[in-house]
Amino acid sequence: MSRFRRDLSIMGAAVLVAALAAPVAAQGPTVEVVAEGLNAPRGVAIATDGSIYVAEAGTGGDQCMGEEGEQVCMGLSGSIARITDGTTTRVLSDLHSLIIGGVEIVGPSDVALIDDDTFYTVINLGGDPAEREGAPEPNKSMAGWLLRGSSDGTYEAVADIAAFEAANNPEPTMVDSNPQSVTTSDAGS
After folding, report:
1. What is the mean pLDDT of the chain?
2. Residue 50's domain spans which residues?
3. How many domains does the chain have?
4. Whole-prediction pTM value?
């Protein structure tokens, strides 16, 4: 090998080593705000048209019971929001919402799409379903339930998840039903 080629090879190797040893500039994730003003957002689902559905647990309400610090305030501030092209529309409103002790919010916790306009949502309970007996309607009929909703603002109660847990409780010492997530099968149900 000629001296020129050998020197060129050594210089090339040195440049390669220097390039590999140089620190790579860290690139953080790109973040884009797609919605603001959501009330305790929880589960998210993306429709085939690109719309984003969000379960909002809400802000509780003004029907309060219990002692200061451990007070439970109930209302109908839970909802399902649809975000399309930067615009947020609450497609299903007036859903069960509790704020417990001023810090823990219970309400719609997840959403799963059946199609671009129909979905399931599950509503938290966070306790024994017997405790909801003293709650006013419609809160009593939503807490701990799976609902099937539509973008036209209607819904139907499909399954009482909390009652199922009470009847088939895996924890022998207490019933603490708090449904969190929901999904659909390929069949859409």
Report:
1. 84
2. 37-167
3. 1
4. 0.79
